[in-house]
User: What shape does this take?
Amino acid sequence: MGEKNSNQPIEESKEQHQVENSNNILTVSGMYKNWFLDYASYVILERAVPHIHDGLKPVQRRILYAMKLLDDGRYNKVANIIGFTMQFHPHGDASIGDALVQLGQKNLLIDTQGNWGNILTGDSAAAPRYIEARLSKFALEVLFNNKTTEWKPSYDGRNNEPLYLPAKFPLLLAQGVEGIAVGMASKILPHNFNELIDASISYLKGKSFEIYPDFQTGGFVDVSRYNDGLRGGKIKIRAKIDILDKKILQIVELPFGQTTTSLIDSIVDANEKSKIKIKKIEDKTSDAVNIIIHIGNDVTPDQLIDALYAFTNCEVSISPNSSIIDVDKPKFLGVTEILKRSADNTLGLLKKELEIEIAELNEAMFFASLEKIFIENKIYLSIEECTTFEEIIETIDKGLEPFKKNLIREVTRDDIVRLTEIKIKRISKFDSFKADELLKGLQQKKEKAQDNLDHIVDYTIAYFKHLKTKYGKGQERKSQIRNFEDILVTQVAVANKKLYVNYKDGFIGTEIKDAQYVFDCSEFDDILIILNDGTYFITKVTEKTFVGNNILYVDIFHKNNKRMTYNVVYMDGKTGYSYAKRFNILSLIREKKYNITQGAKYSKILYFTANPNAEAEVVVVKHKPRPRLKKLSFEFDFSTLGIRNKSAKGNLLTKYPVHKITMKEKGESTIGGIKVWFDTETLRLKTTEADVYIGEIFENDLILVVYKDGTYKTIPFDIITHFDDDVLYISKYQPETVYNSIYYNAEQGYPYLKRFKFDKAIVRTKFIDDKKDSYNIDFTDYEKPMIEVIFGGKDKNKEPKMISAEEHIAVKSVNARGKRLITQEFKKISFIIPKKPDFEEQINEPKDNGPNDKETKQDSPKKNNIDEKTTQEKTNNKKEDKDTSKIEFEVKMPNGKKIKY
Assistant: This one.
């Protein structure tokens, strides 16, 4: 046969293959090509990728269909379900069992009994012979209808199985799916049950909608780059971490795809690599996640939380890939399009069911009418003389002839045969009135079905509302949607390295002998090096690196730090003149060399300071003595210089040679405090403009945080502070500011008003009555608001009452009870803030970009800068019959928003 290769015939035994024709040659490449394509197509279509109509993979569909055949309302052993499913699924019991457990753990289509494992801990289910299952009521209602199901033969041809189930719900998006085929993968994330129904209703009404993933394990999810679930999109999911106290964190919700075991392993690994610092970790999870983390020394809870998100599986990223099977072909559709197709499919199925119902009602009405004619007109008596069956058929047909024109369709032989099968007992007990009632009832059902068919969109919307009402309880969103700020690894990494500098030989590193220790750093930090000749650059932390002779300055480089200001005097090597400059270094390319001077040869730094808060000192400049030089020294104040770009030349300081420059006195910051905002989306503090302006924060200033449960605390400013989502109000703490609170006193049973100044409190402290059922009604930092009372109950017809807070009660301690407002029942009580005279000039001003001076938010009246209820909404809810003599006015808030009162 010659050499064996892909282009030569393969020698085979007669038992394997007999070539009858010399042209009939099989090659390895030919077989590989055909068989591989067949295999790839089979895996894509029949195993890994879900069908768009029911959102199920074949194995899942076969399991559910088998369970429907077994369904008698009782639980079945999972082992029996697996065995019964094998007549439809040709891939063995293991794949069926795994798929069944996964379906059961989603708590939607299958009711389970026994140990089905734990998605939180990763524990596996018990053996199939020990656990039981049955179809849920929801699955029975939305998945099965033999009259609308399309069928195909099973793999062995002995049975029929559904081509796909007639699902009247977006099951694909509710459950999600993940599968890997040949050259193709599918990853569709689960979405919220109720939100899918609401979106389907919106689509049927012609309205826009948005849907985002929701996970059984909860957590926070950032969907800003979801990309409708298509390739190229990405979501981030974070564990929910609570701060129990200064030394203990508690993880209470997991990122999707993680278990307590995998999460703890990642935390332990990060701790062993010194990326985070913890003392110990405990897993107390049972029905709910409860992982306790004991914080290491010299680490704050907020720092550790950010580090956990940065270095462990407490934050994970998932890239969706929305591929589905549609008309026997794989397609990529976004979740929006999938939901639209699902809603259209539901409408089509409901329409088909109504058409079938109407057809069945027509048949029932037709035969009821035919039977009535047959019995009332005693046509059955005419067949007594007939001797053959054919003669009986002809006789009955002839007897029906006068009545056929009133029937809804033609009478067939089969119809007459059915008449001959009516028993004598039934004929003898025939009741014409009951027959008419039956026809009337059938007609009413038909008219109702026809009306639903004529208004099929409204009928479909009502069907979705029915599903939500019946099954939506307990299906509330578990994952909270938030926008995440990117966590800079360099900011949260533990400083687990000690950096040394050999100034003599020009080396820096963590493993240098006979060198000077400078500071602790992390392996992720960039180190800024400045040399005496003005050259500077950044480099990574290594064991030992040569950076150059004459090292002047070494520090950790913080990118985009606008407050770190360098004050420099340098001598230009070309002219000999000395220049002074103040500048920031906001960003650098690693290992690229820059120069503080103009780059001339022999240039050098004469004076240098690094100032974290843009301080500007006063220095004394001494000249080298020379003939006719009258002024040997002078003072220079760096605050006279502006802060420029790092490449700026600077201002001429002196043309004469400088002998020495010394600091006379330290300076103060020239850029003031840090302007701080609060971002209500990320619940983080920011130094760039966001939703709520807190104020200009100076050293030792505190931030006041008020919570919806009637507690407050004061905290030092820290940009990495984490806030809970129950924050009601946040601002710079000012001890002399008067606050007003209306709260319900559960002990007395009446609404109370209190006016007070907050004390410092390092832990959450009550500012309302501490009884269990007491709660805050309204809150404002405006000193002298008005209060509007809208009465309810038996007093609901009374005119609304206006009360001056200042006249009602004086300012007292934060611990005081306050004074009762009213004794009557009320519908609503809220603060109404009067207009301040100094705001008149601001009403018609253009929108600000945020405060630019040292005024704080206290200059502006405000109700509540975080809560969803606005003063405008409160005003709109006033009764029309109230006193119309009140003045309407408009207040412009510092963020530019105008509010009418």
In short: The mean pLDDT is 85. The longest strand covers residues 604-611.
